[in-house]
Specification:
Largest sheet: 5 strands, mixed
Shape: globular
Strand content: 15-25%
Distance between the termini: 54 Å
Amino acid sequence: MRPAIARRMALLLLCLAPLALAAPQIDEPAPPLKGRLFSGADFDLAALRGKVVLVNFYSSYCKRCAFEIGTLEAFYEERRAEGFEVVAIGVDDAADRHRVERMLGIYNLPGMMAQELTESGFASRYPTPTAFIVDRDGVLRHRITGGKIPSHYRELVLPLLAR
């Protein structure tokens, strides 16, 4: 390999290394996540310790997101009293904030825009939908990419609620 190419590759790896380290890791403490919900309430993932939290990166243009949102709403309503919480993070462009807010409002799901987060250890964008499940101790337990069906929630969330 030419020395110039090798130097460029080494520089690229050095630049990308912090991004790899910043990615949320399963079985590690959940990264920080703070912002203001569409309702106007402040949100701090760390303040939800003691609850099981599903952090769902969502887009109002995503067909899979539209497919799963009703299922998510139903599961949230069924399990909220047991300590299950949801926050949907809209990754749409800022100009489409109203679409995300309207859709989440229809389904009674708390949410906010990724661009409006005040602190986040998560990436600013994920393929949508992508969800992370945080246990009662604040540990990241699962990452699910793609549309989720009811069995996903039963298999991954119910054991965490039982603890």
